[in-house]
Write a structure and sequence with these properties.
Largest sheet of chain B: none
Helix content of chain A: 55-70%
Number of helices of chain B: 3
CATH architecture of chain B: Orthogonal Bundle
Order of helices and strands of chain A: HHEEHHHHHHHHHHHHHHHHHHH
Largest sheet of chain A: 2 strands, antiparallel
Largest interface: A-B, 35 and 40 residues
Number of helices of chain A: 21
Structural class of chain B: mainly alpha
Strand content of chain A: under 5%
CATH topology of chain B: Helix Hairpins
Shape of chain A: globular
Radius of gyration of chain A: 23 Å
Distance between the termini of chain B: 47 Å
Oligomer: heterodimer
Number of strands of chain A: 2
Chain lengths: 541, 113
Amino acid sequence: MTGALQHLIVLPILLPLVASALMLSLNERRRATKRTLSLATAAILIGVAATLLWFARDGGPTAYRLGDWPSPFAITLVADRLSAMMLLLTSILGFTSLFYATARWDRSGPRFHALFLLLLMGINGAFLTGDIFNLFVFFEVLLAASYGLILHGSGTERTSASLHYIAINIAASLLFLTGVALIYSVTGTLNMADLALRISKVDPNDLALLESGAAILGVAFLVKAGIWPLSFWLPRTYAAASPPVAAVFAVMTKVGIYIILRLSFLLFGKGSGGAAGFANEVLLYAGLATMAFGILGTLAARQLTRIAGHYVLVSSGILLAAIGIGGEALTAALLFYLVSSTLAVSALYLIIEPTERNADEDDIIEGIAEPVFDDEYVGAIEEKETEIGTVIPGTIAILGGGLIFCALLLAGLPPLSGFIAKFALIDALFSHVVIASSHWIMIALIILSGLATMISMTRAGIDLLWTPGEDSPSRLSLIEVTPIGLLLAVCLALMLAAGPVMDFMQDTAAALYEPTGYIDAAGPAAPAFDTSAPTTSGARP
Amino acid sequence: MEVVLSLAIGVLTASGLWLLFRPRTFQVILGLSLLSYAVNLFIIAAGRLRTDAPPIVGKGVTDPASYADPLPQALVLTAIVISFATTALLVVVLMASRGLTGTDHVDGEDGEP
C-alpha cells in the first residue's frame, strides 16, 4: 500500500469517531438523518475492511505510524491478515445489527447510534493497534460504549445486569494496567513488535516478573473472552441486552480471543527463548472447563437468550483450548470456527426476539421501558410506537426456517459452515501421531457441545414456534428479516467458498507462526524510517 | 522510599479488595477507586523511583540518565482520566439501580433483612 491508500488503515477508527461526534450534535428527533448516517458509516466500514483484507492478503502486514514518529516511539496501527479479517467480521456484524435496530430498537433510549458507532471504533482500534497501552485505551473506549449500550432500553433487569458487568470490567481493566506496568518495567517498551524482539533477550532473573505480568494481562483478556470461572456475568448480561446490542456483543468475546492469539504468538512463540509456550497448558485446561460449563449451561437454559449466552461460552472454550494445543492446522481451523460461530450466534440473537414476541409475556424483558432519568429526550422516547416496513405473511415459516438454520450452524451439523469448522478442528486434532488424552477430551466435548445445542434448540423451538398459541402469530417487518438473512447468507457463502477461505486461514496461521513479517513492518527497524527528517533522535535514550 | 510506596500500594490494594467483595454498591465503588489508586502508584513504580529528576528532556541535553522515565507518567495520566470517567458512570448506574430496586444491594435484593 502506498500513497493516499496507506491512510486507509486509520479509517476504521477515524470514521466511526467522526460520525459519532456528528451524531451528538443532531437532535434526537432527527431520526431519519441519524439512521442514514450510521448505516452509511457501517456500510463504508465494510468496504474499507474488505479493501484492507485484499491488500493484507497479497502484500503482507502493513504498519501505519500515527503522527509519523519513528517506530518504537510512535503508536503503530498494523493491518495484517488476522486483523483485517477481524475488522471485516466486526463491520458485517455492525452493519446487520444497526440495520436490525432501525426497525424499532434504536428508539427505546437516547443516543443509540452515537454509542453504537463508538463501540465499533473501540473494537476496530483494538484489532488494529500494535501497542499494548493503546490497546488499553481502545478497550476502555469499547467498554465505555458497551456500558451505555447494555443500559439501552433501561429496565430493572438491564440496570442490575449492567451493574455487575461494569464492576467486573473495571476490575479487569485494573488487572490490565498492572500487567502492562509489569511488562514495561521488565522490557522498557510497549510496542508489540518491539516486545517480541526484546523478550528473547530478557535476563532469566527477570523472566518470572515478565511472565507474571503477562499472566495478569492475560486474565484481563480471559475475563472478556468469558473463560470459566470468570464467565458467570456473561450469559446474564448478554440475555439482558437488547437484541441488536447482544448481536454485536457476539464479537466482543472474540476481541479477547484475538488479543490472546496475537500476543501468545508474538511474545511466546518459537523465537522467544525461555518464555516460549508460556501458559499454553493453562489455556488448554481452562478452555476445556469452559466448554464443559457451557455445555451444561446450554442444557439447563430454558430461554433462547440463555442458550445463546452459553453457546458463546462453548465457542470461547473451543477457541482457547485450540490456542492452548497449537499447531498450524489447528490454528487455521480455529480461525474458521471463530468466523463461522460469531456470525451464527449473532444471527441467533437477532432471531430470538421476533420468535419470542408471541410467547409468554413474563419470560421476556420488556423492550421499551420508562426512562430512569427524565431528560430532554423524553418526548422522543415516549413517541407512540408504529409498525414500519412491509408486513409479510408466513411469519412462523420464516422464523422457523431461520431458527433451524441457526441451530444447524451452531450445532455443527452438515452441510453448513459450522460443520466444516468443527470437522477441520477434529481433523487437526487427529493429525498428531500420538493423540494425547486432553485431545480426546476436547474431541468428545466438541461433539457433545453439538448434541447439547441441538437438544436445547429443538426444545426451545418446539416450545416457541410449533406449540399452538392463543394469539395469532405476531407480525414481522422486512427490516428485521433482512439482516438475519444477510448473516445467514454470509454463513452460506462461507460454506460454498470453504476451500478458498480455508486456504486463507492456513496462510494466516502460517503468518502467525512466523511473525517476522509483522515484526519487520511494525518493529523498530521499520523500512519507512525516515532518517532525513529533523527528529531529535540524538537526544533519545 | 521504596518501603513507603510498597506499603501504600499494599494497604490500598488490600482495603480495595475487601471493599470490592462487600455487598453494598457504594462499598464496591469505593473499593474500585482504592484499587485504581493502587494501580496508578504501581505504574509510577514501574518506571523506577526517582527524586529530583524532571521527566521532560530539555534542549541540548544528551544524557538521558539524569531524567526520570516520562512514559509511566503519561500512562498514569491516561489511566487516571479513564478510571475517573468509568467510576462516574458506575455511580450513575448505582443510582439507577437504587431507584429501580429500592435497595443498594449489588444483586438488587436483600437476602436476609
